[in-house]
User: Fold Acyl-coenzyme A thioesterase 13 from Liquidambar formosana.
Amino acid sequence: MERAKEFLELTQDESASMSRLTVHPHQVGVEHSFYEDFALKGIRVDRVEPGLVSCTFKVPPRLADRTGKLSTGAIANLVDEVGGAVVYVEGLPMNVSVDMSISHISTAKVDDELEITSRVLGQKGGYSGTIVLLRNKATGDVIAEGRHSLFGKRTSKI
Assistant:
């Protein structure tokens, strides 16, 4: 337990940096939220087809862990966001994540350019399954593979 506590504790410099952070309220639907600017800024959508979304993302320092690698939390966030985007239907509420399973194969460091591809594995009613692959564009190495299950309300057939 002590080791976990030590790992989660911020250094004095990290704590000072966090205390200087200012998060202003935003106008919903008009401007980006703090979350969007922090977690998703820089993601570029390259291709969209039915059942497929392909993006490029350069790993920014803000999403790196203490060792300079893309953090596992950032990887989970990318699986969640890109996995959800492939099943999004305009005009309907966003789907909610039911389950995610992520295999971390290798690591990515700051400034690595990643290719993130999401495909629909299947849909039944309001339930969808997707697979998200994060790959280093320069080396071709797979960084992570995520399976993402989502549920969303579909239009009525009546």
